[in-house]
Amino acid sequence: MRAIAECSPPDEAAFALIRQAAEPVVMRGLVADWPIVEAARAGTFAEWLSARASNDQVPMIRAAAAEHGRLHYAPALDRPNFDREPVTIAGFLADAARQADLFAPDTLAIQALPAAQVVPDFARSHPMPLLPDDVEPRFWLGTPAVVATHHDTVENIACIAAGRRRFTLFPPEQVANLYMGPFHLTPAGTAVSMVHITDPDLDRFPRFADALAAARTAELEPGDAIYIPYGWYHHVEALAPLNLLVNYWWNPARRDVGSPWDALMHGMVALRQLPSDQRRAWRAMFDHYVFMTDSDPAAHLPETFRGILGADSPADLSEMRRSIIAALERQNQTPR
Length: 336
Hints:
Elements: E1 2-3, E2 5-7, H1 12-21, E3 25-27, H2 35-41, H3 45-52, E4 58-63, E5 70-71, E6 83-87, H4 89-100, E7 107-114, H5 122-125, E8 137-142, E9 145-150, E10 155-162, E11 165-170, H6 208-214, E12 216-220, E13 225-228, E14 233-238, E15 243-250, H7 260-270, H8 276-290, H9 314-333
Parallel strand pairs: 1-12, 2-3, 5-9
Antiparallel strand pairs: 3-13, 4-6, 4-7, 7-8, 8-15, 9-14, 10-13, 10-15, 11-12, 11-14
Helix pairs in contact: 2-3
């Protein structure tokens, strides 16, 4: 495990180069001038937030003290190891203060909540200089907690507004060594690793040692931010009695061409069951036509004869979707 690379706050041009490299970077002091960060450094974060938060109820996670802060699965893997309950921000802060005085506190967390639902003018008063204004900030507010290793199909800038957080990141290529859990039942909407980084069982999960060798880590303080590239797996530990992370998710990819996630789901059903020789053939097809590992598969064809190999216009994409839907409907009508 090695340290994540660091830099001073970049301008837009420097950040464009960071994104192009597709490697995680800690940006020390990127949001040091945010009012909420200044309050955290002055020790008045809870008072600052309480004075500005709305009175609306929001969903809160509560995990029993026996879970030691880990937000994961119950032993039978049939449900998360936490419950959800409605709470106001004032109620959350009061409960968090009570838990801080206990020898064995519950874990409390509010996750991925649009910041505007908590502090209505947050985006205006706390600008993110590296992103367009339409990228929405989200709040991750909580007591000490451990969020299991997972990945998001978006890019991410995560800023520490209060408390401290430790990040452990894994490149996308480490997925085979992370022992991911089921897709259909997840603690918070995305598959998570079954291995606890804070106490890994290497007898049960031996390949995780290779993942740790490739991992990168950093600890962030108020005002710091981290860029997590698309698809990088990350494990996040909130370390202070009260913590707030503000993150920004965005995806610059086209939205009108279909979801890669949906393609993966269908591929797992349509391709994984094939005999090994057929999987080999399809792997070569995907490498050539989808991932273009050697060259443009349509470069030798006139543009007017490329068909799906050059599909780009709205009409092309509409025809592609119609053909896929028709094929799936035919398969549903075919007896097994």
